[in-house]
Amino acid sequence: MKQLKYFITSLFIVSSVAVFAAEPDSSLIKRNVTIEKEYIPTIQEAGKVNDIPSVVEPELKKIEVNYSGYSTLIDPPFEIRQLESARLTYPALPSQKDGYLRLGIGNYWTTLGNFMYPIVNKPKSRLEVSLNHEGTFETKKHTDNTLGLNYHRYYTSGEFFMNGGYEYEGFNYYGSNKLDENTAYNMGTYSFIGNQYFNKDATISGWNFATGYNSIPTEEKEYNFSAQFKYGGFSPNEGLKEHNINTKILYEKKVDENKVGIDVNLQNLVYNSNNVEYTSLAQKSYSIFSLNPYFDYQQEKWNLHLGIVANFSGQGKGFAPTPDIKAQCTLIDKTMYCYGGIVGDLQANTMKEMVGLNHYIDLNEKVKNTYTPCNIYGGIKLKLLYDFVTDFSLSYKTIKDQYFFVNKIVTDSTGQVNSNVFGAEYHDANLFCTSFKINYNYNQEFSFVFNWKHNAWKVTDGTAWQMPKNEFDFATDMKLTKRTSVNINTYFKTGRVAQAADGSSVSLKSMADVNFGLFYAHSSKVSSFFRLNNIINRHYEQWYGYEVNGFNAMFGLVFAF
Which domain holds residue 130? Predict the structure, then answer.
């Protein structure tokens, strides 16, 4: 225990010096782009901010659902994207031990290309290269391209990894233009003509690097250790550049049948701007240092995680502590489980995350961290039949500086006008969530998942602009024959409102997607897929003023080698 105390004390001193030695620079907003060992880019369910943590038991194998910020048939490589066309990730790619090539083409000149090949593939080492392209090239143009190189070295006691990559994204702004191209407008002291307000051909580049070592937990081992370093660079052709440097160290030691540990995280965010005229808006560089000591009680029928996170930030609230208490219990073996906790979070709103949610935000506008001092949640899971699981949960959060997207206001000779570019409006808020999930899988032949979530926002001096009140998600996957499978996925978001130029509320159409996929395996090396998205051809607004594409389709082939 003495060695552990010396280690923790030394680690705290070194990390603290690194935080306060970080010299604030100039710049703003944020977005980081991180490429790790990902073969199929997957998207989290966007809009579902701060998901409720789930329990380990029982292990649920939900059908993977991806959401796109563009109504194309591609799966964008960003971690978060405001959903527009929901669909199952299908077909499944070959084993990650093998190389593969996936090609697809659809209407709106949508193209898809994924390639992965293991240059070195030995029992103790693996080096692979990956290329991914996804794009649509009609009126609403958008292309994502990534190049990655990943290396893993396996040892008896752990794993060393080193990953690097480059991302390039290009798109044009679209939507029902709210500004006349030839009219003069003002925004504060800045004057411009309507067609000069935003760049119609935007590009974003990202450089990424990650390396680290993770020990392998075993019953005999007294301790576990993990050290990781990540860098993400973000650079748009117009706006703020961001460098996100993250160092994370975890140390865990057994105490009888229990565990004591400490998790240390240092995040440095460095900014600079491409635009001289926006230097007055530039955000200073800053650091966030988090220290999370904890103790885990491990029992046969229950376990309890007790900890606290001490967050020190160079922006906003200097000291932001959060609780870290989680518990789960088996009420009826293999049938009923309950879980709950009191946790919190200090979230650095990075450029990648904000632009990933909304591509049309002002890239020169300052942003704030979002602080959740308390998130109380609890739920119960029932496994009534074999592979039939229901999950009901409740959560209540208090949030400081939660952001909501609103159209930026400009003025002309007639008065105030909404533009097509968004700003982030910050408010303190409370959020009460109710969630219900059903998951069923029959012998890997038929499966379905249903999710419902109700969000009750209470915003101080404001409105939860463009946040949905209800979210519904249903997906089913069925194997018709040994070689043929089909899937259907539907997604709905209701209760969204946007802010008009005069400050009043405007109701937005419900988001609604119905999607269909067909997969056929011609052989062990060749398969084909066919996908239909937005079958009901619903032209809802992804964001206020930005209508999505309607019905779209894609055909493609997958080759394994």
Answer: 2-560
